[in-house]
Amino acid sequence: MTTLPNLEDMPNVVLSNIFEKTGISGILKFRKVSRSFREFLEVSPMNSGIIQMNFSVFRDLISLKFYEKDSENLEISGIQYSKSGENNCEIRYGNSGKALKDSEYSNRFFEDLKIILTYQKSIINILQFVCPVPFFISNYQEFVRKFQKTLENFKLKVKIFHMQHSNFEDIFGILKNLDSREIEEISIFSMTAEQSNNKEIDNWVNLDQWKMAKRLKIRNVSMDQSIIDFLHFEEVHIELRTISANDMILVAQKFLTSPIPKDYCIEYLDFPDESKFSDFLGPQNVVNEENSAKIVFQSTEDENYLRFCRCFLANVEENS
Fold first, then answer.
1. What angle is formed at CA 55 by the lines to CA 49 and CA 56, rounded to 5 degrees?
2. In this predicted structure, what is the pLDDT of residue 302?
3. Cα–Cα distance measured from residue 81 to residue 78, given in angstroms and rounded to the nearest whole number
4. Domain span holding position 154
5. Which residue has the higher pLDDT, 161 or 283?
6. Helix boundaries (H) for the chain
7. CA 123, 129, 130: angle at the middle one, nearest 5?
8. Does a structural domain hold residue 173?
9. Which end of the chain has fewer CB atoms within 10 angstroms, the N or the C?
10. Domains: count for the chain
11. Residue 164: inside a domain, yes or no?
12. How confident is the model over 287-302, as pLDDT tens digits?
């Protein structure tokens, strides 16, 4: 009688090739098949090759989506962890799902996240973290702490870090655990009402991640911060609570004399001595209307573009 080949009896090199081709979603499933697979995967040095990871946190639901190096469809590699009943959890892989009794959904998420990050050896182009309304999630702070703690053991290599949330202390705890040698862009956007952060960002400016990044985009969050802390970036899009003519002249001179800054958009709420800056730029570079909005600095190979825009943001974009 012929014995059918058993996958568990395959040589390690063959198993490694199989598991790498299945991707991280396949690895998560194979770990649940048998103890031998689980033990093999725990010591295997394979790379999952994820190039983009998106985390979304909602009430009683965590969604993880990722592009893998050979995948063109983000939705195919999506996993959702949700609360089901009082003490149960439902995990969905695409169109298939599984219910787990006496299992807390966020604990299962973090168990799988540790596995995913263990196999992530290459650079992630985009790491995106979305929590639109954190005050609706009763255990959100606990979730953030667990997420920060998980990242401490990995130092992920990430090019673009994007977080749709406005608590700078929370963001700081995640950002500091990314590999500073690879970070290129930090992007923050508050989806709730405009937020103000006056103290927490002081911790950011001392981070290597802040110093090494090339682009900074912080939207819908007003800051009381010196413009000096932003001048090493190539691209900046921020909103400051108050700006001064001397600071803006410093930025303008930086654009005229240094190859580093390329594209700055500085929105503001208060500009007490704006006439001094207008005089510095000259009337040809000032858009005069009733509502102050932003100052735009752009540098290209051919010319430097400096404009003081005193109008609605939408109007500025139409005129630019």
1. 155
2. 66
3. 10
4. 123-223
5. 161
6. 12-30, 35-43, 105-118, 140-152, 168-175, 201-204, 208-212, 245-257, 274-281, 313-319
7. 155
8. yes
9. N
10. 1
11. yes
12. 655 555 678 888 766 6
Contact 253, 282 (CB under 8 A): no
Give SS3 for 17: helix
Contact 295, 308 (CB under 8 A): yes
Rounded to whole angstroms, the Cα distance separating 185 from 161 reads 6
Task: Name the β-bridge partners of 25.
Answer: none
In the block, tokens 């920060």 appear at 148
Looking at the domain assignment, is residue 162 inside a domain?
Answer: yes
3-state secondary structure of 303: coil
Q: 103-109: long-range contacts (C-beta < 8 A, 24 or more apart)?
A: 105/60, 105/61, 105/62, 105/81, 106/62, 106/81, 106/139, 106/143, 106/146, 108/81, 109/62, 109/64, 109/81
Cβ partners under 8 Å of residue 243, min gap 6: 227, 266, 268, 270, 271, 295
Residue 172 lies in a domain: yes
DSSP, collapsed to helix, strand or coil, labels residue 31 as: coil
Residues 232-276 have pLDDT tens digits of 999 999 988 889 999 999 998 888 888 888 889 898 888 889 889
pLDDT, tens digit (0-9, with 9 covering 90-100), for 160-214: 999 887 677 788 888 999 999 999 999 998 766 555 555 667 788 899 999 999 9
**Amino acid, single-letter form, for residue 176:** K
